[in-house]
């Protein structure tokens, strides 16, 4: 039985999609073809990483790291962490922290000079969680624009 954080593999896709349904239940359901094509694209790009935390043979948590080449900061890339989610039944067990810390380690391995993460959550527990991972919510201000403005939640 496998345990620990690792890069996602083909067989993880169905479990990742289940976790994303918990993260964004209002999203439309992807077709299998779209999900697989996007997953394959992520897997083929060394700057993109989709991590899972597996415990006792079950995918419990996931997050996505995108590293972007950059012409500032001595040509060091920057990273963005997105889609952090742990199964609702397994929260509070440290799985999310482990997967985020792994993503940060990989970003530092890519020589990223910074890693950013945005959250739309207003919950203090969410912000406490990200601070416990070493992230700071008071260094910079984030701005977001959606293509479809009906998705903006006020």
From TrEMBL:
<dbReference type="InterPro" id="IPR000182">
    <property type="entry name" value="GNAT_dom"/>
</dbReference>
<dbReference type="GO" id="GO:0008080">
    <property type="term" value="F:N-acetyltransferase activity"/>
</dbReference>
<dbReference type="InterPro" id="IPR016181">
    <property type="entry name" value="Acyl_CoA_acyltransferase"/>
</dbReference>
<keyword id="KW-0808">Transferase</keyword>
<dbReference type="Pfam" id="PF00583">
    <property type="entry name" value="Acetyltransf_1"/>
</dbReference>
<protein>
    <submittedName>
        <fullName>Histone acetyltransferase HPA2</fullName>
    </submittedName>
</protein>
<feature type="domain" description="N-acetyltransferase">
    <location>
        <begin position="3"/>
        <end position="150"/>
    </location>
</feature>
<dbReference type="InterPro" id="IPR039143">
    <property type="entry name" value="GNPNAT1-like"/>
</dbReference>
């Amino acid at each position: 039985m496998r345990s620990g954080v690792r890069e996602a593999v083909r067989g993880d896709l169905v479990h990742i999609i289940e976790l994303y349904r918990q993260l964004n239940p209002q999203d439309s359901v992807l077709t299998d073809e779209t999900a697989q094509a996007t997953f394959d694209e992520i897997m083929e790009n060394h700057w993109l990483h989709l991590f899972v935390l597996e415990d006792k043979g079950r995918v419990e948590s996931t997050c996505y790291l995108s590293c972007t080449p950059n012409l500032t900061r001595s040509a060091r890339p920057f990273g963005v962490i997105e889609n952090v989610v742990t199964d609702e039944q397994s929260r509070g067990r440290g799985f999310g922290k482990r997967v985020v810390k792994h993503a940060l380690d990989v970003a530092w391995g890519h020589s990223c000079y910074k890693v950013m993460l945005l959250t739309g959550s207003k919950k203090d527990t969410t912000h406490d969680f990200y601070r416990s991972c070493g992230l700071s919510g008071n260094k910079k201000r984030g701005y977001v624009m959606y293509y479809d403005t009906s998705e903006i939640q006020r």
